[in-house]
What we know:
two-stranded antiparallel sheet; single chain; two-stranded antiparallel ribbon; 413 residues; 4 strands; mainly alpha; 51% helix
Amino acid sequence: MKRLFFLLILVVGSVIIPDLSAQNNGAENRRLEWLNYLDKIAKPVMSNLANDRLREEMPVSVPSISDDPKNRKKVAYLEIFGRTLSGIAPWLNSEGGSQDEIALRNRYREWSLKAIDNATNPAAKDYVAWMAPIPQPLVDASYVALALIRAPWLWNHLDTKVQNQVVEALKKTRSTVPVYNNWILFSAMIEAFFCQYDIPYDPVRIEFGIREFMEHWYTGDGMFSDGNPFNINYYNSYVIQPYMNTIMYVMIQKTNRYKQYAGKLDTISKRYAQLQERCINADGSFPATGRSIVYRGAAFQHLADMALHKNLPVSLTEGQVRAALTAVIRKTLDAPNTFSTAGWLNLGVCGDQPGLADVYNNTGSLYICTNIFLPLGLSVNDSFWTCEDKAWTAVKIWSGQDVNGDHALEFNH
């Protein structure tokens, strides 16, 4: 099989992919560029956790304004595990590609299965804090649940012992009362995971999450409020809309509940995808507004998730979305000092910017940025990868091209 600019080198059991960011020779190279970035971020996490050495190798930084440095460092290992796994999950669940991509995926599958075991095995050195003096483990346990929903391959290839460890670990978070905002979806996601795999679940936690957002917290024009009051930030993308779509899909498929909300949520999701695409500036930058801005490309998890599920609005072509997301990836990961000398992400959105961090951030928090890579779950032959690059809205407007105006979403009541 022809190896299209994708060199596989095995060095001390790790996979190294050459930097393809300077090449632009078609859709296959674009996909390989994404894999290169994803591997650079995820390899230190998954390889070390698989070898029960994450605590030994991972440096944990917290900002000077941290609300609880000791406990933020304690929960960082679950954060980095759950968030990284949620981003790579669709790719792990996919098949095919070049021989080199298949080899890379197989390596990550092997790492992931071992990592899940170590993270949930109380006898392992890297057993993570599923409970802590602060409620943060609920958040990142939900990302583990999300990852296992996104990647049935992982769940189905865990042996019964490890599956039981996962279930027991996730159950521990039930004692945490979620904050009255997007956190109610963290509880709902864990229960949706149980429902997905026919494990006894608590439907009330799911009911509460879905109804609060669909009946009380939709603010209009494609956006939900993150509790009360409404704030401008990227939490519709970090959490709310990807979680809502995943939870409702599971529940509709498994129980036939919540079908009454499906059409409205789809309309909202398409409108928010439009807004997300328009937020991406011509150079790949975007408004650095609201909390958690150090999550970098995760600000566009929703747009990536809509592309993964082939559910983009008709106003957005796959070529323009792929090009826009690529610009964000480069902007947020190519800046000097984005990574430490040991290869771990630094606090910041465009380099090393600890002043941008919030009180609850730490090194582990940053790895939610892997969720911009969700379309890697699509086949290499999918139109998302094979279609031509297209200019996205900001490129068109600021180069003087004429485009259609933007209009708010209004529901007919």
